[in-house]
């Protein structure tokens, strides 16, 4: 049964604080990289989770009449093996909600481990709140009842991204490059499929993968891209790999568009600066520029006051916290994760960043507006990384891929 939840900032502020009691916090484990080459991405994500919990929930009375949400950080060093160790530590500490997003390789390991744990421990179950790992398999063949994805998956984003490419008749050659793991492979497969359907005249002049987090000099890749005559580049790279690849491509003489999933924030926007103008395109959920409301602007300003060097570059994090809080309140418990999961699936939620988020019942894939955004300093209210540059929505696909098929065959408790 579908639920409609309106717990954005305006509704959250309506919660009474007079009944706040001293009660145990509801803990959410944040398992992501806090050291190594992707530490800046993980740390900024952690700050966004902590801020969302405090601003949206805790300072407005908490959940269940007074319980706060506490984010507990665990450094997984971007390693699936380390992630499973940290997952078990979190479970042993009594934490019932696991948030993770970087990377899909880690997410695949966690979702399998959570499913096995919940089968073996029916009185000690946990939920996996996937806020950024977008391998389509996670809500298709590998779906399970305990996994919820709050980001648009790679196929949904590629569908939107290739609409933009297909509309540009000047693009005849495309180069695809990504990190060598499940997500990078999914991006490549989706790009080939959608471009083949929408623009069969486009030639894929390159399609390759590189080791994740290990390439120090992208010059050999960039020279191949330039030599191929590509008029557009598609990459799912993120973190240090996105910055290294993008800057190298531009420095080696490429001046066409680079279509990305994650080329914003965490130092990337400032590093691209002027060189990214007219080049970097980003497909993402959530609209930062222009802000959709005064409430969204107030949230962003408050975040910057607390974290001057940070960015609200993962708006899905506020949706994750808001929807979890709403589900706990609706279930009337923070302990029975089965009840909470049933409240989450089918929920519609008014996002602070515009539009609604609908958690699809059959596969636990969030359906929401997706935007094509441009790296620019023109018309930017909220810049990233202390620079004058940010991303601005130039095209919006409402409730993207809402009727897309899923091969998920979910078994429910």
TrEMBL record:
Q: What SUPFAM superfamilies does its record include?
A: Periplasmic binding protein-like I
Q: Does the keyword Magnesium apply?
A: no
> Taking every annotated instance into account, which residue ranges of this chain make up the domain Leucine-binding protein?
26-373
Key words of the record: Amino-acid transport, Signal, Transport
The secretion signal range is: 1-24
One GO BP: amino acid transport
- Pfam families (alphabetical): Peripla_BP_6
**Family, as annotated:** Belongs to the leucine-binding protein family.
Q: What is the protein name stated in its UniProt record?
A: Leu/Ile/Val-binding protein
């Amino acid at each position: 049964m579908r639920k409609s939840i309106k717990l954005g900032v305006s509704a959250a502020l309506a919660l009474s604080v007079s009944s706040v009691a001293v009660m145990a916090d509801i803990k959410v484990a944040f398992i992501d990289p806090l050291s190594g080459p992707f530490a800046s991405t993980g740390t900024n994500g952690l700050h966004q989770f902590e801020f969302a919990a405090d601003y949206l929930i805790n300072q407005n009375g908490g959940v269940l009449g007074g319980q706060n949400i506490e984010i507990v950080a665990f450094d997984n060093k971007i390693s699936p093996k380390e992630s499973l160790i940290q997952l078990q530590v979190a479970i042993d500490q009594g934490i019932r909600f696991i948030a993770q997003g970087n990377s899909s390789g880690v997410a695949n390991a966690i979702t399998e481990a959570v499913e096995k744990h919940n089968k073996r421990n029916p009185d000690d179950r946990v939920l996996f709140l996937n806020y950024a790992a977008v391998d389509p398999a996670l809500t298709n063949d590998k779906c399970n009842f305990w996994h919820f994805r709050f980001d648009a998956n790679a196929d949904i984003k590629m569908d939107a991204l290739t609409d933009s490419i297909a509309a540009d008749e000047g693009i005849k050659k495309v180069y695809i490059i990504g990190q060598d793991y499940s997500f990078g492979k999914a991006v490549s497969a989706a790009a080939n499929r959608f471009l083949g359907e929408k623009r069969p005249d486009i030639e894929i002049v390159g399609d390759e993968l590189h080791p994740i987090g290990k390439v120090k000099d992208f010059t050999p890749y960039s020279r191949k891209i330039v030599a191929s005559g590509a008029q557009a580049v598609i990459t799912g790279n993120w973190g240090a790999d996105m910055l290294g690849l993008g800057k190298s491509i531009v420095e080696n003489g490429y001046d066409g568009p680079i279509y990305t999933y994650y080329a914003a924030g965490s130092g990337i926007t400032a590093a691209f600066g002027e060189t990214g103008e007219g080049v970097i395109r980003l497909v993402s959920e959530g609209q930062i520029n222009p802000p959709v409301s005064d409430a969204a602007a107030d949230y962003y300003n408050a975040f910057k006051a607390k974290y001057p060097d940070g960015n609200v570059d993962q708006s899905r994090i506020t949706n994750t916290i808001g929807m979890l809080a709403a589900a706990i309140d609706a279930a009337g418990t923070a302990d029975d994760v089965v009840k909470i999961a049933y409240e989450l699936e089918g929920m519609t939620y008014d996002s602070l960043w515009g539009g609604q988020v609908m958690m699809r019942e059959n596969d636990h894939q969030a359906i929401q507006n997706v935007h094509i955004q441009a790296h620019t300093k023109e018309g930017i209210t909220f810049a990233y990384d202390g620079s004058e540059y940010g991303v601005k929505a130039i095209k919006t696909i409402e409730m993207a891929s809402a009727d897309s098929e899923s091969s998920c065959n979910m078994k429910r408790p």
